[in-house]
């Protein structure tokens, strides 16, 4: 495989990358654009005008990428490029001028079983350090709830979604709860796209928690 193994130091890194793609035969244009970049022109502006990649619509922005998502030559160039420096590489698609704008640790999304969560909830420090979100509707929360969970109803997403990084800390471990674990998974995946580092979906939701961990909680 050309992709990284678990031992690579790049595993766990995500890069915010923009690029410009030219056909292999367009070497003269490649040199011209390199000169314009040296003179201070912006890669995203040049991508809109000259790139043959569909990402030109977004100024060449590819978004956050991690090892294993790109062809090996592009990956090699991106993961060795200094931040904000435009570098050149060639792949089967043609010539790329690419720029890494930022880097971060890769987001981790995993399930947590009700019994494990129940154990953690007995620790006061855990309640202080973790962010606990219940994405069910208010009438559901009235029927059955876990103390310490902040209710961010999925149906009210429009009111809290745009402000999520001010309401919550993306660096903190975040646990998401719903009735059976499906709505919470939907929100957990969205939190990943917003830069949250560690997100746990409570497997089976509050129903499984009531059945497996705390029978004092009503099921519905």
Quick take:
Pfam families: Rhodanese, Rotamase_3. With 220 residues, the chain is α/β, with parallel strands linked by helices. It is 35% helix and 25% strand.
Largest sheet: 5 strands, parallel
The tally of strands reads: 9
Strand order in the largest sheet = 5-9-8-6-7
Number of helices: 10
Report on this model:
There is one protein chain. This protein is of the alpha/beta class. It is built from ten helices and nine strands. It has helices spanning 27-38, 43-50, 72-80, 114-121, 124-129, 138-143, 157-160, 164-167, 182-193, 205-212; strands at 13-22, 61-66, 86-91, 94-105, 108-112, 131-134, 150-151, 174-177, 198-202. A hairpin with a 2-residue loop joins strand 3 and strand 4 (94-105). The relative contact order is 0.13.
